[in-house]
Amino acid sequence: MEHTIYDFTVTDIDGNDVSLERFKGSVLLIVNVASKCGFTPQYEGLQNIYEHYRERGLYILGFPANNFLRQEPGSNEEIKQFCSLTYNVGFPMFQKISVKGKDIAPLYGFLTGKKTNPRFHGSIKWNFTKFLVDRKGTVIGRFEPKTKPDDEAVTKRIEAALGE
Q: 0.90 exceeded by the pTM?
């Protein structure tokens, strides 16, 4: 059984397995994303904070999901092309997964589970839910979809985590 976020291996948008241990010592903002959602313009804010903080150790990890009104219908290749052409996304993107329900991806089972994430558990209600993870791999924040990535509530928490 997994004990930390670093015990997970996920598949990037190009089909390569990526151990999250690769990000040990970094601050992570893990986001379930979608290309045809009212919150899709948040890609711009995500890219902006990634550019602003990446030299200090922030990674944004984007996980496309089609769980909400089929707002991510595309293939991984189509998603990659959309993100690149529309929002010039440079942060790591991963293959489309499920973030809730019977087929929930193991990482999201960990993030939403009461036993594995007691402070910030609960099912994902919509696209662009954000989990903030500190340099030790502990989930230290959760931001619901309406909270924009560059909102002061998010950036203050990121700055505090980067300063630790």
A: yes
